[in-house]
Amino acid sequence: MNILAFESTCDETAVSVVRDGRTVLSDAILSQADMHALYGGVVPEIASRKHVEAISALTDRALAEAQLTRGDIDAVAVSYAPGLIGAVLVGVSFAKSVAYALNVPLIPVHHIRGHIAANYLAFPELKPPFLALAISGGNTLIVDVKDYTDMEILGATRDDAAGECFDKAARVLGLPYPGGKPMDALAQQSKGGKYDLPRAHVSGSELDMSFSGLKTAVVNLAHNAQQKGEALDEAALARDFTQAVSDELVPRAVLALRQTGRKVIAAAGGVAANSIIRAQLEQACRAEGATLYLPPLRLCGDNGAMIGAQAYYEYLAGNTAQLDLNAFATMDLNETGF
Ligand code: KG4
After folding, report:
1. 194 — phi, psi (to 5°)?
2. H-type helices in 29-188, by residue range?
């Protein structure tokens, strides 16, 4: 089954063709990050407008790279929640038009389910049940993937997402948006151990997380140093900050493995590209005797292929929508909006 999949929830316009949920035939992506970097973060209206401009040409490119014609497409999938609403609406409207024109089923896909499904593309042997640590720019979740379309949230951030925290910390260090990747490079230049940053604990809820205190601590630290005219050891701060994020994530991932008795965990989302978090997850899972799946870097960030992968399983479960499908800015990954 060839699924034409659309992703436009933030600042990447992406169109992909995926066969039977596991094989990527094409994966066309246009990132707007350079444009938003001028403003230090994503400007929602610019994001929507850039999606409008790019999505049609990217669709042609995705079909050409897959060496398919429109008649070879069996279904259309779209990331319909959560995200910047104007941006999501572009993908949803376009996908609906394509499904209408081709007279094929329309499959709505939750963006975070898509991130988790990126692992199916990289690891053919991976099948539920397993745990997922979904760490992106807008979400931070520990999920029990009981089946392809049956998921339970075991833990979540109570405030900011890990990626949002990376981006804000990077900004006060003068690094470009999106800040995760340059923070990663900077952190690798230091062993850290210089700055004492907070670790959050959500009482009564061991698997929940919080990043806003850490974000504020880094912002205050940088501003105080600036006001006093003191130089910051930026590499050490990046390293200590990353360690604080990792300390929020890795022990909770291990705890979730213990609590559920699962032996397999997959990472997902842009922050799963972080080299220090990857290494510490590997170490912790090895010590725990658990199998860890870490998607290749190109599948960690937003892409259309992950939407096409999850869409196949949504289709098999009967989760198709009519052409009155709407877009949603927020939605839990075990809810549906159609
Ligand atoms: O999954 P993603 O591409 O978009 C969302 O669905 O949100 O994640 C983007 C986030 C950004 O906050 C970005 O700074 C972060 O992932 N990121 C990283 C790294 N690469 C991207 N964070 C830490 N280390 C990285 N190497």
Report:
1. -105, -35
2. 33-37, 44-65, 85-102, 111-122, 162-172, 180-187
pLDDT (tens digit, 9 = 90+) per residue, 172-229? 999 999 999 999 999 999 999 999 999 999 989 999 999 999 999 999 999 999 999 9
Secondary structure of residue 277 in the 3-state scheme: helix
Distance in Å, CA 105 to ligand 1 centroid: 31
Q: Which of 139, 140, 166 to mutate to test the pocket of ligand 1 (most atoms within 8 A of CB)?
A: 166
For 164, what's the count of Cα atoms within 13 Å in the CB-facing half-sphere? 16
Protein residues with CB under 6 Å of any ligand 1 atom: 10, 136-138, 163, 166-167, 178-181, 184, 269-271, 273-274, 301-302
List the one residue out of 284, 301, 297 whose CA is nearest residue 249: 284
Give, for 132, the enclosing helix (H) or strand (E).
strand 130-135
Ligand 1, atom 19, lies closest to the CA of: 180
Residues 66 and 36: their CA atoms lie apart, in Å, by: 30
CA 302 to ligand 1 center in whole angstroms: 9
Q: How far apart are CA 273 and CA 82, in angstroms?
A: 21
Domains and CATH numbers, the chain: 2-116+301-316 (3.30.420.40), 127-298 (3.30.420.40)
- DSSP string of 249-269, one letter each residue: HHHHHHHHHHHH---EEEEES
CA distance 316 to 36: 38
Q: How many CB atoms lie within 10 A of CB 104?
A: 19
Pairing outcome for strands 23-31 and 12-19: antiparallel
Give Cβ neighbours of residue 87 (< 8 Å, ≥ 6 apart). Answer: 8, 9, 10, 11, 44, 47, 48, 51
pLDDT in tens, 51-89: 999 999 999 999 999 999 999 999 999 999 999 999 999
From the list 266, 276, 226, 208, the residue with the least C-alpha distance to 246 is: 276
